[in-house]
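Minutes, project check-in

Agenda point 3 was the complex the collaborators sent over. CS summarized: two entities, 542 residues total, and the question is how they sit relative to each other. Sequences were read into the notes so everyone works from the same version.
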Amino acid sequence: MDYFIQQLINGLTLGGVYALIALGYTMVYGIIQLINFAHGEFFAAGGYMGVIFISWLAAQGVHPYVCLGIGLVLAMLYCAMLAMAVERLAYRPLRQASRLAVLLSALGMSIFLQNGLMLTQGQYDKAYPTEITAGGFQLGGLYISYMQCLIVALTIFLLVVLNLLVFKTRIGKAMRATAQDKVMSALVGINANHIIALTFAIGAGLAAAAGIMVGLYYGTVSYSMGFVPGIKAFAAAVLGGIGNITGAMIGGLIIGMVEIFAAGYISSQYKDVFAFIILIGVLYFKPTGIMGENVDDTRV
Amino acid sequence: MNQDSRQPILELRNVVSAYGRIRALKGISLKVFDGEIVTIIGANGAGKSTTLMTMCNVVKAVEGDIFYKGERINDVAPDQLPTRGLCQVPEGRRIFPRLTVTENLDMGAFFRRDSAGIKEDLERVYDLFPKLRERRRQLGGTLSGGEQQMLAMGRALMSRPRVLLLDEPSMGLAPLLVKQIFDIIATINGQGVTVVLVEQNANLALQCAQRGYVLETGSVVMEDEASALLHNPDIRKAYLGE
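CS then shared the predicted structure for the full assembly.
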């Protein structure tokens, strides 16, 4: 039983990370019907910027948790700006082009960003200063690390903020309106380009936070770290119903849980396979995903 | 009164617009004066909706000039026009289906910052369309056709328009509702809003408007006082089903 609950906590931690990444895929898809294959690179860039900012701040003798907080915010801002630049350079010029052209541009961007990271940061893994959140506590037969608490709390905080932003604010309404009908949203005075850039920025900011969490959790980051979690988060977005924000959160949690339980009870060597089995299964049996957004593009 | 001596609030001069190589408007000129209701009638595919979309720069004019309040607006982005008081209720209403009624109305006032004024206007719209107040928490996509038309017009009013472009407000509505919608158009016009009305229902449109333009395959073939068009035998034959 303890083992089961332990795995549940691990699954929650990992699921939260996938959920944060999946949101970027789903929000971008919702607004411009693009699978942004470069999205995983924002996650990797976030992991790197996190270690750079946090290590630098720690070297200045700043309190560890303050380092973490400031490093997180700076890395999120950096990735938000990076994503806006990518959108401006690689996607906006292709707004009127076929979907395939934009998709290829996204793949190209992914390769470009990944290699950019390798050239600037080196091809070897970079270690995170994990000692700043070391330790944990015993709860019955369970061991819960402070790191896990931090990751879960931060994930919940970011998801709540995102929900408030999208569903309660004026700009969130404008984002949903733009996703639903771009011509009409222009006719009420919404600048679609601003809204699209903002969507990319928010998605990349969340991915950056996820990158830092993974860096802290596993202790290292590498230039190619964006690929596999990126694809798994994409599977999560599809599972939840691509374009649907709540769906991405649920999908992320499910993929994380399945992966942890499969690793714990079946085989840890095959843990990566399960996300893709789910992806194939969803595409085969229920392509609209759990939350059932329309896959046909009926929005014009 | 000689209208040609006044400056129109909205004017098209020899406007050509095209979808790819197909020219939908073949050099249209028309004038709309402050405070009037002008109707554009014509058969399916005559270019009525394209004319409205070109006025809002959603469809770009490839030739000719569009003037609004004396200023050439060909190069103004479509999302800048509502701020200036030029607002459209497009064909098919285009309600945001997964926003609530209130959220749809809020979007009409997107560019406005005067929250007190917005609140006031929201109440005004709800007074004008009591049905919308009842349904204010419902998603736009779940409304009936008539309610969607009311919502679309309410959303446009939330921007406090000077000129309101209405595309087929009667489409798909029961006769009683059509009459209600046209009464509201007259009310809105009475409050000082200039209206450009595109309609297939030429009879009703000409009764409601002061002047009318007749469009045929992308060109203006006739323009006159609405009452004159209503009694013109050619028009009666072609558009009024006689």
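Noted in discussion: DSSP finds nine helices and ten strands in chain B.
Follow-up: revisit at the next meeting once the mutant set is ready.
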